[in-house]
Amino acid sequence: MKSVYILAIESSCDETSVSIIKDGKEEIATATLSQMDTHANYGGVVPEIASRMHIENITMVLEETLNKANFSIDDIDAIAVTYGPGLVGSLLVGLMAAKTLAFIYDKPLIPVHHIAGHIYANNLVKPLEFPLIALVVSGGHTDLLYMEDDYNFKRLGGTLDDAVGEAYDKVARVINLPYPGGPLVDKLAHEGIDTYPLPLPLDDDSYNFSFSGLKSAVINLTHNEGQRGHQIIPENMATSFQNRVVEILTKKTMRALKEYQVNRLIVAGGVAANKGLRQRLTELCAENNVDLIIPPIEYCTDNAAMIGAAGYYAYKLGRRADLTLNAKASDQLN
Ligand code: KG4
Ligand code: ZN
């Protein structure tokens, strides 16, 4: 069978990334420019700056990917692009690039949901097997999904407010750590003890999550201690916070595996790098005979390779967009 080469574009947040993927599983070439250092000066992603930087970077990243692969657009079968969810101004830059290429070179345009990309990042390591449960945890998303087969997503639940990575970054700021603070909170969490009485958020029968109350509890405790002239102990706060996050994420994920009688779990997104979460899931999955799959770090964070992997399955299912394809800040995955 003839191979399918997808050129994929991702620009939903602060990474401009272009990749060429063969048959949904083989990465031919990827180039990514991260804006993290610029946004770090502001303590978080500034949407207006992000879209301007995508415009500056997109053609360079596209050219670099084609050069690395030694490909021309004629070698490409279809153009896949993230249409959402994400920052609209950022998404539009990738969309315009993809639509322009599809129009000029007469290639099919494949719309890809960003979360489908995070899940299919795993396909670049080892082909996905079904059924599976996917936990997607990042700066922008916290979703629990059930997949019966390829590109068939049933969303079981997700965050009702802050994404888990967003909560990490805000807590980091409260304990005076620079952006993005998630990895630093994770590191500190391994040096402290769980002394602060933080609540276990949204400990109910649903598969939804809520992290804003937990984040507020950290802010209030820190504030109240400060008013009494006491300093909080950052490593103990990090441990207490991380323990609650890991407990609620793993509790609901393990329940979903049981309810859907699935013995395969995929964890994706930037927070999949969290050591506390990885450790606890490794233990629980071993106890329950669940196959745990977590992609390497470079595939956990935003990149176009994952969009190319997902895009291949969308392509095979005949999903196509026309030139009216628009950016969506939020959209259900289906
Ligand atoms: O997937 P990603 O690169 O971008 C989004 O799609 O959001 O995720 C970035 C998020 C940031 O909030 C960052 O603080 C968080 O992932 N993160 C972590 C860790 N490494 C990255 N959070 C907790 N522990 C970590 N080790
Ligand atoms: Zn992401």
Summarize the structure.
The protein contains eleven helices and ten strands.
Question: Can you offer a commentary on this structure?
Answer:
The structure is a single chain. The protein is of the alpha/beta class and about 325 residues long. The protein folds into 2 domains: about 5-120 and about 300-315, ATPase, nucleotide binding domain (Nucleotidyltransferase, domain 5), CATH 3.30.420.40; about 130-295, 2-Layer Sandwich (Nucleotidyltransferase, domain 5), CATH 3.30.420. Helix content is about 45%, strand content about 20%. It is built from 11 helices and 10 strands. The chain has helices at about 35-40, 45-70, 90-105, 115-120, 165-175, 180-190, 210-225, 235-260, 275-285, 295-300, 305-315; strands at about 5-10, 15-20, 25-35, 80-85, 110-115, 130-135, 140-145, 155-160, 265-270, 290-295. Strands 3-2-1-4-5 form a 5-stranded mixed sheet, sandwiched between helices. Helix 6 (about 180-190) packs across helix 8 and helix 8 (about 235-260) packs parallel to helix 9. It is globular. Bound molecules: 5'-O-[(R)-(carboxyoxy)(hydroxy)phosphoryl]adenosine and zinc ion.
